[in-house]
Task: structure prediction
Amino acid sequence: MTKTIQALTIDTAKNEWHGQKGFFKREVSMPVLDELNNKKDVVSVIVKVLYAGVCGSDRGMWHRQAFTDMFHNSLEKEEKKLRIVGHEFVGEVVEAGSLVESLYGVKAGDKVSGDSHITCGKCFQCRMGEQEVCQDQSIMGISIDGVFAEYVKIPAKNLWVVDFDRVRPEVCAMYDPFGNAVQSLTRVDVRGARVAIFGCGQIGLFSVLLARQFGAAKVIAIDINEDNVKMALELGAHEGIVIKPAQKEHPYDYDKEAINEIMKLTYGKGVDVSMEMAGFNSSVNNCLEATRFGGQVILFGIKDGDFMIPKFSKMVMKGITLHNIIGRQIFKTWQIAQRVLSDKTNGVQDKMWNTIMRGGDGPVINFSEFSHEIMEEKMKKYPKLIFDMQK
Ligand SMILES: [Zn+2]
Ligand SMILES: [Zn+2]
Result:
């Protein structure tokens, strides 16, 4: 008899994508290494998941607003109906394929996090060191099975060995999204810059910490949620702006009041760098309005669907540079993230744990206590949630 484990899933055979929302806890078979029948298992490991983070994209999937095509196409390709979700993790290697230690230096007993993008290593982009845009990649928890499970099988090349003395385990589970913020804040030079961060969910908040860390002269945090703006200020943002609901001609129009305020704070110039971390169409237009002539816009939060940019030519006339952020640079981003998190004097790790995660009180959910209602309640209340997978 095969051993089973508990996992959070979406089953398309039960119409769970289109008909419903949320994730569904089920018994699934324990992943195994079977080198005789699956050659790739020689370079794979089984990880016992200790903590798993709930990403903004998991929230998007919860509400069926993100990755619809990727999710369905991948299941079709695998001839499967059931997907285990989740991709941010830290865990312990319990079994390693026969080539793992000699090729990757990873062995049973190691504590690991890892990148959620499983890249091919063979395409033009991979060969050029641009794995984040690999032409044949899978994303854990979306296009292959993920980490909201007691155990998961992962290719060893994706692992990042961690040391709990340097970074606490719960924060190690946030390497992946923290890496998105690192990737955003290292794409442009923020030294001495005025930076507007639109959207203060988890990655927006991490971006506030990093913008300060990397030497921004003024960080302006903007959100529709007052609590998120308050938290951004606690984390070191110089200014906070709450976007109030307003009568607009179109929902995608920029928010006039917020933009006026940003213009005041930047002496009429606009910010050097705007970061789109909210995912709304209006937020993209806010970024384009808030950015100075010759400035830069980072796009990260965007979800499924078409986006409208009125007066597109204005962006050209302003000479704005757009940067699109996907994933992390493997493993350059991870190295920078580790250095920032390991430095006990900069306060970044402490603020992530004590302020964003409230020291675990509330935002950490015991996996055994998962329910649809608890998730709905906590997703409204906290910017970041983590499952304690062993409780
Ligand atoms: Zn994520
Ligand atoms: Zn590739």
About this structure: The two ends are 25 Å apart (CA to CA).
